[in-house]
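During the practical work, I selected for study one protein's amino acid sequence and its backbone structure tokens, as given directly below:
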Amino acid sequence: MVLSTMPIGEYDRRVVILTKEQGKISAFARGARRPNSPLVGAVNPFSFGEFTLYAGRTSYTIQSASISNYFAELREDVVGAYYGFYFLEFADYYTKESNDEREMLKLLYQTMRALINPHIPDRLIRYIFELKALTINGQGPQVFQCVNCGDKDRPAVFSPAKGGLVCSECDGNVIDGMILDNSTLYSMQYIESSTIEKLYTFNVTDKVLNELGKVMERLMEVYVDKHFKSLEILETLT
């Protein structure tokens, strides 16, 4: 999937693509800004498909592309598009070159499909994406048992700083404990344990959505040291 593109020179583009074989790749699309170029539509953000590249001494060049989904619906929905740009920017920040990124690529694809589904709120899609991305990266919080003693039965608070649930016997030095609604906790358990294909198959109440938002805001502060431009724009639109 194309994560970003920028003009280079008079007719070329520099494109960042997330691949399942090589992780994140930067490549040049020669002549892609010419109106008659076969790559003119293929190297836009959100384009998903197969890209044929050849490796030069210092960089890759895109030879051809077969796009299976342009997610063109996002061009007609400004808010949805900026949610999409945020997910692309997040993936660009989180993924690496020469790394196995098939789970993140799969998450991106399913998330874009969810964005063009009118039955799922964009905010819920955002929180699901963020939590699953943290989980894929090995930073998902412990939401099934106490992070200290492993207890599953005692009342517990959720501590972003401690990395998950802390039971009533272990919470003496917790200063950021959040008491979560059972439905919020269940939603988080489902997101972390579910396959990516089944992620976007549920909805939540406004109360749970707002609570998920507070949880993810804190988790992002703890684990993601970056301000995303697309998110800043998105927050002026919503």
